[in-house]
């Protein structure tokens, strides 16, 4: 009671408080939305020494929803608001492999929207659990190709069409996705490398990252090389290398990347070259980043860094190569970081390093396996 009386008295004597957002520090971030982007640029010292190039990556796993997709999620909602497509209390609906959904779900909470996510049932259980914890309604649907009307994207579109005050954010073909990277990630890379970046390489899901970053950097210096990194089972390597929409052999354990078509975000992207990265190489690099560099990230990050090393080999020493760490490893305990699951895929052998120090890290993987699978 005393405290209540005291605050009431204080309120009476205090002047009216100005509640407009105040930028009393450049470092101040305003809410969840203000946390998206402006990620650090990391230089991997050992890989840089080995290649003679600066191998660098944007720490996109440090975005507030834990992935590079927070940037796209923010722009997808922001532009829908600006165009008046969604009103307060509305519903945001998306088809997503998970990370865009997680970004959207966070932003929906911060802005007071409902969130409904359709995702292929091949994605990690952890992503579903995170989405549900964030209050999203999750529909895990059978993974079928895009030309099948039961594909998760078409299901999301139909659901939005039948819902009042709802938007289908359509990350694959809504180019506000690549605009996010043109307006934020690209300029950040330019500034953080002080304009010295020679090449960027990114694996591709929607194509938003590579198209947006690539276009921005080419506008600053057309000599910067933009290289697409592609996993097993995707068509994009063959498309950008040989002009054929032909799948490469195998199927990948990586999530969120690889594509069967040229999305609207990818159309017209200034891509100079493509490199193929096998799951073996992506896994080896993911565990190198864990054991040797201390970064706990997902397999698309490993794939990106492996691609950066390949690009360094193509360009020769003395170049600055930039990629990104896409998301944290915490979403993959039951797969990438599960011994039994990785053994079932024939990939466990590539998670290990031979000397004793590395055995310590391999034990870590084994322990996770015992606890989680
Ligand atoms: C883990 C992960 N890495 C990379 C990407 C690819 O990014 P983009 O959609 O901008 O091509 C995604 C996209 O969902 C992702 O989830």
Automatic annotation (TrEMBL):
Residues 36-327 form the Tryptophan synthase beta chain-like PALP domain. SUPFAM superfamilies: Tryptophan synthase beta subunit-like PLP-dependent enzymes. InterPro entries: Cys_Synth/Cystath_Beta-Synth, P-phosphate_BS, TrpB-like_PALP, TrpB-like_PALP_sf. Its cofactor is pyridoxal 5'-phosphate. NCBIfam families: PRK10717.1. PANTHER family: CYSTATHIONINE BETA-SYNTHASE. This is Tryptophan synthase beta chain-like PALP domain-containing protein. It comes from Porites lobata. The lineage of its organism: Eukaryota, Metazoa, Cnidaria, Anthozoa, Hexacorallia.
């Amino acid at each position: 009671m005393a405290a209540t009386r005291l605050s009431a008295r204080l309120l009476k004597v205090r002047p009216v408080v100005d509640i407009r957002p105040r930028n009393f520090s450049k470092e101040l971030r305003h809410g969840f939305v203000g946390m998206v982007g402006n990620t650090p640029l990391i230089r991997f010292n050992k890989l840089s020494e080995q290649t003679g190039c600066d191998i660098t990556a944007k720490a996109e796993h440090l975005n507030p929803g834990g992935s590079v997709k927070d940037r796209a999620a923010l722009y997808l909602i922001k532009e829908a608001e600006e165009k008046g497509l969604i009103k307060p209390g509305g519903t945001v609906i998306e088809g997503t492999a998970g990370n865009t959904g997680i970004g959207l779900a966070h932003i929906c909470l911060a802005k007071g929207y409902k969130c409904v996510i359709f995702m292929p049932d091949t994605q990690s259980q952890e992503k579903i659990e995170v989405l549900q914890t964030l209050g999203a309604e999750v529909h895990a649907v059978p993974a079928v190709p895009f030309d099948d009307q039961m594909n998760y994207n078409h299901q999301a579109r139909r659901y939005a069409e039948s819902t009042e005050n709802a938007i289908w954010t359509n990350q694959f073909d809504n180019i506000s996705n690549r605009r996010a990277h043109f307006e934020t990630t690209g300029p950040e890379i330019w500034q953080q490398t002080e304009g010295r970046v020679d090449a960027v390489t990114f694996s591709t899901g929607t194509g938003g990252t590579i198209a947006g970053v690539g276009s921005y950097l080419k506008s600053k210096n057309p000599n910067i090389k933009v290289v697409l990194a592609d996993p097993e089972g995707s068509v994009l390597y063959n498309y950008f290398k040989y002009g054929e929409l032909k799948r490469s052999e195998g199927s990948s354990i990586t999530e969120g990347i690889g594509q069967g078509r040229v999305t609207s975000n990818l159309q017209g992207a200034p891509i100079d070259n493509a490199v193929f990265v096998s799951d073996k190489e992506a896994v080896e690099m993911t565990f190198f980043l864990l054991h040797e560099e201390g970064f706990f990230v997902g397999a698309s990050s490993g794939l990106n860094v492996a691609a950066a090393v390949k690009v360094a080999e193509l360009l020769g020493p003395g170049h600055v190569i930039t990629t990104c760490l896409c998301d944290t490893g915490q979403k993959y305990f039951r797969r990438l970081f599960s011994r039994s699951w990785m053994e079932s895929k024939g990939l466990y052998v590539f998670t290990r390093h031979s000397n004793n120090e590395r055995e310590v890290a391999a034990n870590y993987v084994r322990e996770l396996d015992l606890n989680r699978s």
